[in-house]
Design goal:
With about 500 residues, the chain is of the alpha/beta class. It is built from 15 helices and 14 strands. The chain has a nine-stranded mixed β-sheet, sandwiched between helices. Strands 1-11-12 form a three-stranded antiparallel β-sheet, with no helix packed on it. Strands 13-14 form a two-stranded antiparallel ribbon. It is globular.
Length: about 500
C-alpha cells in the first residue's frame, strides 16, 4: 500500500469581513468604564408588518409542524465600543476599556417551542453571518435537527452594520429590503457590534418590553457564531465576556487563526495577535469546532484542551456543505430571491461536500449545553492534517472521523479547485462518488477530489471494499457505535446513519 501523499494545498477563497462603520455618535458622551457599559439595558418593541409581511430570513419550512413558532423583535438602546487596554498577546487574555457610545436599533429573530413544556431551558444566540452582505444563519442550519428535536430556543441577532444598513450586495441590508418594516433601524458601526450582541442577550434574560421568549425561563444562554461571525465570537469571548458576563458558554464554529478586531474594522485585522487563541481563564466553556476547510488557516491557533476550552477538527467536512445549503437556500430564496448569495461553482465541477458536519454539530451543541450546565467537558479529538491524504481514497488523515469517513463510499473533502467558480465555491468542499472515474471531473488533476495530483490512482471499487450489503451495513453499524462511544456522535444520529446504510444498495 502506498504511503499517504502530501498534495499541494488548494487555496479556498473566503469572503472578506464586511465591516461598515458609520461613525455617528450624536453627541453621546463616552462612558467611564467597561463595567459601566456592561450595565446597559435595551428596550424591546414589535416591528411593523412591512411590505413583505414576514421578517428577513423567515424560515421557509413549516416550523409549526415541529411545534415551534417564529417571531421578530426590535432591540434598541445605547451601545458602547471598546478599545484595547494594554498589550494583547496570543493567549487571548485581552483587556478592554470602554470608548464611545452610540444609539442603535437592530432586530432579533426568535424560534422557540410553542409549548413551554417542550423548552429545554437553553437558548442559542447566533451572531448572524454577513459574509454574503446580508444576514445568514449557518449554524441554525447545521444544528437544526438537534435544536428542534430537543426543545432549544434559537435567536438570531443582526449584530453587524452591513446586515442592517447594507453593503455591497444587491439588497442594501434590512433597511433596503423592507423600508416599511426596517426603516427605523440604525446601526452605528461594527465597533459597537460586541455590545449590541451583549445587549441582545440581556434583553432575553430581562426583557424591557414584550418578552421575545414568551415567558420561557432561561437556564442556559449560549453564544454562537460561524465563519466570519466566529472571528467576532473569538474576540467577544476573549475580550468582552469578562466584562459583560452575559453568556453561559460559547460555540465558535469555523474560525481562523486570527480573531476579528475589537474596532470592527477589517483593516485592523493586521493589528490582532497572530495566532489568536481562546483564553483559558473564563468561568464559562468555549467549544471550537473546525471543518476540514478551516484547518489550514486555523491550525496555527491550536492549543491544548482544558476544562474550559475544547477543540474538534472534523475529517471529511467543509465550511459550508450540501446539508446547510439544502436547508438554508429555500429560506434565502423566500427572502432574497435571485439576490441570495450562491456558491457559484463552475459547471462540470464536483458537487458540494455532503459529509457529516451536521452530525458533529448536533453532538457539539449537546455537549456544550451539558458542559455549560456543570457537566463534563466534551471529549478531545485528534488533530487533522488537511494536506495529507490517503492516496487510495483521497480522504484527509487524522481528525474526528465519523462513519462517512471510516466506512467510506465516496471522497469527502473540505478543499476543492475553485477555477472558474464564484467567491464562495471553495467554502463548500467537494464529494466524488466512486464510480470507476466516470464523472467529468475525474481527470486526476486539481479538480478531481479523489485524486488531485499525480500519479493517477483509480477510485476504490465499492464491491471489493464491501463484498456484501450485509458486510457494509455491519461496518457502518460498528463505526456508528464507536463514534457514539467516543462522544462524537449522538445515538439518534447513529440510528439515522445505520438506517440509511440499510436502505442503500451498497455492497456486493
Amino acid at each position: 500500500m502506498r504511503p499517504p501523499v502530501r498534495f499541494p494545498r488548494r487555496r479556498t477563497i473566503a469572503a472578506a469581513l464586511a465591516a461598515v462603520l458609520c461613525a455617528v455618535f450624536l453627541g453621546v458622551p463616552p462612558v467611564a468604564s467597561a463595567a459601566q457599559a456592561a450595565a446597559a439595558g435595551p428596550t424591546i418593541t414589535v416591528p411593523p408588518n412591512g411590505s413583505h409581511g414576514f421578517p428577513f430570513l423567515a424560515a421557509a419550512e413549516d416550523l409549526g409542524s415541529f411545534g415551534y413558532t417564529e417571531s421578530e423583535y426590535f432591540v434598541a438602546g445605547v451601545a458602547t465600543s471598546y478599545v484595547k487596554s494594554g498589550i494583547w498577546t496570543s493567549d487571548g487574555r485581552w483587556a478592554v476599556r470602554a470608548a464611545l457610545r452610540a444609539p442603535y436599533k437592530t432586530r432579533i429573530l426568535v424560534r422557540r417551542p410553542t409549548d413551554p413544556a417542550k423548552f429545554n431551558g437553553t437558548v442559542v444566540v447566533e451572531w448572524l453571518n454577513v459574509s454574503g452582505q446580508l444576514d445568514l444563519s449557518p449554524d441554525y442550519w447545521f444544528a437544526r435537527e438537534e435544536l428542534l428535536r430537543k426543545g432549544y430556543a434559537w435567536v438570531g441577532v443582526s449584530a453587524q452594520a452591513v446586515g442592517v444598513n447594507g453593503g455591497l450586495g444587491q439588497i442594501h441590508g434590512l433597511k433596503g429590503w423592507d423600508p416599511a418594516r426596517y426603516g427605523t433601524l440604525f446601526h452605528p458601526g461594527d465597533a459597537f457590534s460586541y455590545d449590541i450582541f451583549s445587549q441582545a442577550g440581556q434583553a432575553l434574560r430581562a426583557p424591557n418590553g414584550p418578552d421575545p421568549l414568551g415567558g420561557l425561563h432561561i437556564r442556559t444562554l449560549l453564544a454562537d457564531g460561524e465563519s466570519q461571525s466566529a472571528g467576532f465570537m473569538t474576540t467577544y469571548a476573549d475580550a468582552v465576556q469578562p466584562v459583560s458576563q452575559v453568556y453561559d458558554g460559547f460555540m465558535i464554529h469555523s474560525n481562523s487563526a486570527i480573531a476579528a478586531p475589537i474596532s470592527g474594522s477589517a483593516a485592523d485585522t493586521l493589528l490582532m495577535p497572530n495566532p489568536s487563541r481562546i483564553r483559558t481563564d473564563l468561568s464559562v466553556p468555549t467549544f471550537v469546532v473546525l471543518t476540514e476547510t478551516d484547518v489550514p488557516l486555523a491550525s496555527a491557533a491550536r492549543q491544548p484542551d482544558t476544562n474550559r476550552v475544547v477543540h474538534w477538527e472534523l475529517a471529511g467536512t467543509s465550511h459550508g456543505d450540501q446539508w446547510a445549503y439544502d436547508l438554508g437556500n429555500p429560506t434565502l430564496q423566500k427572502s432574497a430571491g435571485s439576490a441570495a448569495p450562491q456558491p457559484d461553482c463552475a459547471a462540470g465541477s464536483a458537487p458540494y461536500n455532503d459529509g457529516p458536519g451536521h452530525y458533529a454539530m448536533n453532538a457539539a451543541l449537546r455537549h456544550l449545553t451539558d458542559w455549560a450546565q456543570g457537566g463534563a467537558p466534551p471529549p478531545s479529538g485528534p488533530a487533522l492534517d488537511a494536506d495529507v491524504r490517503d492516496p487510495s481514497t483521497g480522504l484527509a488523515i487524522g481528525g474526528i472521523r465519523l462513519p462517512d469517513v471510516t466506512v467510506p463510499t465516496r471522497t469527502l473533502t473540505g478543499l476543492r479547485d475553485t477555477g472558474g467558480s464564484g467567491v464562495f465555491c471553495g467554502l463548500y468542499g467537494a464529494r466524488d462518488p466512486w464510480n470507476d472515474d466516470a464523472d467529468p471531473w475525474d481527470r486526476h488533476d486539481a479538480g478531481d477530489p479523489s485524486d488531485p495530483a499525480a500519479p493517477p490512482n483509480a477510485e476504490p471499487v465499492l464491491s471489493r471494499l464491501y463484498p456484501t450489503h450485509a458486510d457494509y451495513v455491519s461496518k457502518v453499524r460498528a463505526a456508528a457505535q464507536a463514534s457514539v462511544n467516543a462522544g462524537y456522535l449522538l445515538p439518534e444520529d447513529a440510528t439515522t446513519i445505520v438506517i440509511a446504510a440499510q436502505n442503500s444498495g451498497i455492497g456486493g
